[in-house]
Design a protein that fits this description.
3 helices, 90 residues, Non-ribosomal Peptide Synthetase Peptidyl Carrier Protein, Chain A
C-alpha cells in the first residue's frame, strides 16, 4: 500500500470510530486527540487496526504519545519504514 492509501485507511477508521463527519479530519496535519476524535480507550483498538494494516505487531512499549498527534505522525511512526524506498508519503 502506498502512503496516501494508508493515510486514508487510518482516517476512515478514526472517523468511523468517532462517528464523525469527514470534515472533522480533512488533512494529515489535523490533530486527532486534541479534536476529541479518539479517546485513550480507543487507542488499544486503533493499534490493533494499525497492526492489521502493517501485517505485523507493534512494539507498544516503544510507542511515544506524540505519534498520535495527527495522521502524518501516525504514518511516519508505523509505516514509513515499511514503504518502498521510492514511495512518496502523502
Amino acid at each position: 500500500m502506498e502512503a496516501p492509501e494508508i493515510i486514508e485507511q487510518l482516517r476512515g477508521w478514526i472517523l468511523e470510530r468517532a462517528n464523525a463527519p469527514a470534515d472533522r479530519l480533512t488533512d494529515s496535519e489535523m490533530p486527532i486527540l486534541d479534536e476529541g476524535l479518539l479517546s485513550s480507550l480507543d487507542i488499544v483498538e486503533f493499534i490493533l487496526f494499525i497492526e492489521s494494516l502493517r501485517g505485523e505487531e507493534v512494539d507498544i512499549e516503544s510507542i511515544e504519545p506524540e505519534v498520535f498527534t495527527n495522521l502524518r505522525t501516525l504514518y511516519d511512526a508505523f509505516f514509513a519504514d515499511k514503504a518502498p524506498a521510492n514511495a512518496q508519503s502523502g
